[in-house]
Automatic annotation (TrEMBL):
Assigned keywords, A-Z: Acyltransferase, Cell membrane, Lipid biosynthesis, Lipid metabolism, Membrane, Phospholipid biosynthesis, Phospholipid metabolism, Transferase, Transmembrane, Transmembrane helix
Protein name as annotated: Glycerol-3-phosphate acyltransferase
Compartment(s) where it occurs, according to its Swiss-Prot or TrEMBL record: Cell membrane
SMART domains: G3P_acyltransf (SM01207)
Catalytic activity: an acyl phosphate + sn-glycerol 3-phosphate = a 1-acyl-sn-glycero-3-phosphate + phosphate
GO BP annotations, alphabetical order: phospholipid biosynthetic process
MF (Gene Ontology): acyl-phosphate glycerol-3-phosphate acyltransferase activity
HAMAP family: PlsY (MF_01043)
EC number: 2.3.1.275
Quaternary context: Probably interacts with PlsX.
Taxonomic lineage of the native organism: Bacteria, Pseudomonadati, Campylobacterota, Epsilonproteobacteria, Campylobacterales
Short name of one Pfam family: G3P_acyltransf
Amino acid sequence: MNENIIAYAVAYLIGAIPFGLILAMVFGKTNIAKEGSHSIGATNVLRVMKESNPKLAKRLAVLTVVCDALKGLVPMIIAKAFFDLSDQTIWTMAVLAVLGHCFSPYLKFEGGKGIATGAGVLAYFLPIELICALVVWFIVGKVLKISSLASLLALLTLIVASFVFHYDMPVINTHAPIFIIAFVVVYKHLPNIKRLLCGAERRVI
């Protein structure tokens, strides 16, 4: 079998692992897919688990972010370091990891919203842009305490920064993978965007 196809399958299937759901089930005996926003991401882990154990909730939320980021990044690093796959292939792995997280075959093609996994895969190619995005995410999150708004503004910052620092994207000469990831993330945030426009989006306190 073509090694690229194997890499794509691995990226998607590892990206699809619902770490937030697993961590909440194992350590908190809670199925977050049936509570809160029903998302498997860190924000829902924090929101749901905080009701019963605030200290554990913060730890599990942080661990969820780390695991969701690494499940996208690590396969890409291994693909390059041990198999010397092309940057085009690794960019495709990045997109598939985010798709796996957002549309997981383990969860009947439901999933998270792609922020942490997207950050993980983009850290590989665009570390400067990611730092800019994280600064915006931190400031907005700290001041307004609205996770979805912080995430969406961070995504916008990353896209703008990618044109500033890498207008001619090295090797692939296109921003298409970034826009695909952004489209998926925005699509998964549509309910949040609707609540934001209505002033009904919940804050993370």
